[in-house]
Amino acid sequence: MGNRKLIRPDMADLKKNGPGRAVRRKQAPPEQTNAEEFYYLKQMAARTPMVLVLTDGEELRGWIEWYDKNALKINRHREPNLLIPKRNIRYMYKEEELRRRRRASTA
Fold first, then answer.
1. Could you give the C-alpha distances from 37 to 44, 45, 48, 70, in angstroms and in order?
2. Cα-based angle 62, 103, 38 (whole degrees, multiple of 5)
3. Which residues make Cβ contacts (< 8 Å) with residue 69, sequence separation at least 6?
4. What is the pLDDT of residue 73?
5. What are the tens digits of pLDDT across the range 9-22?
6. What would the 3-class secondary structure string for the chain be?
7. How far is the CA of 54 from the CAs of 37, 59, 89, 98, in angstroms?
8. Is the dihedral of CA 98, 100, 104, 107 positive or negative?
9. Domain spans of the chain?
10. More confident call, 98 vs 40
11. Which of 35, 42, 48 is nearest to 75 (CA)?
12. Which residues neighbour 74 within 8 Å (Cβ) at sequence distance 6 or greater?
């Protein structure tokens, strides 16, 4: 059979050279995923009627015309447009979802 070469490197060589690869730490997640931006742009382009529920329980209906990091501008039919700070919004949903729920509960 003769002399055979080892496939693995010699352990002494590994200890001299240190670790072969740098140990990578898990990176922190990015601060911004662009999911919010994608959602707002999609709703703005379609002029989707939205319902915004504020922290005090008040509901506002309209469509999103503009947004930035801290606020949303809502256009409304026959009522003044509003610039609402995001910190005052508890949650929002499409007005269409409200209609679907009502139809499902009456059927």
1. 10, 12, 15, 12
2. 40
3. 86
4. 96
5. 677 777 776 665 55
6. CCCCCCCCCCHHHHHHHCCCCCCCCCCCCCCCCCHHHHHHHHHHHHCCCEEEEECCCCEEEEEEEEECCCEEEEECCCCCCEEEEHHHEEEEEEHHHHHHHHHHHHC
7. 20, 6, 4, 16
8. positive
9. 35-106
10. 40
11. 48
12. 50, 52, 60, 62, 63, 64, 65, 81, 82, 83, 84
CATH of the domain spanning 35-106: 2.30.30.100
Instruction: Give the pLDDT confidence of 40-51 residue by residue, as tens digits.
Output: 999 999 999 999
What's the pTM value of the predicted model, to 2 decimals?
Answer: 0.64
Structure tokens, 26:
């898990």
Q: How many residues are there in the chain?
A: 107
